[in-house]
Amino acid sequence: ALSFGHLPVLFVPAGPMPSGLPNKEKAAVRQRYAEGKASREELLEAEAKSYHGPGT
Questions:
Q1: Residue 15 zone, left/alpha/beta (φ > 0; ψ -120 to 50; rest)
Q2: Do residues 49 and 20 lie in contact, with contact meaning Cβ atoms separated by under 8 Å?
Q3: Which among 26, 30, 19 has a CA at the least distance from the CA of 56?
Q4: Total domain count for the chain?
Q5: Predicted confidence (pLDDT) at residue 1 exceeds the cutoff of 60
Q6: pTM
């Protein structure tokens, strides 16, 4: 039986992904949440927007 399988594979990126929420805005929402000035829903919405795009 085959003890070591090797498949020649090359992963190629699909190109640049659009950036999500800028770090400054995300940090501001986190700071407001820590101070009690932003709701959990606002925090989760900001976190979800920080992902670049589908597949990340």
A1: left
A2: yes
A3: 19
A4: 1
A5: no
A6: 0.60
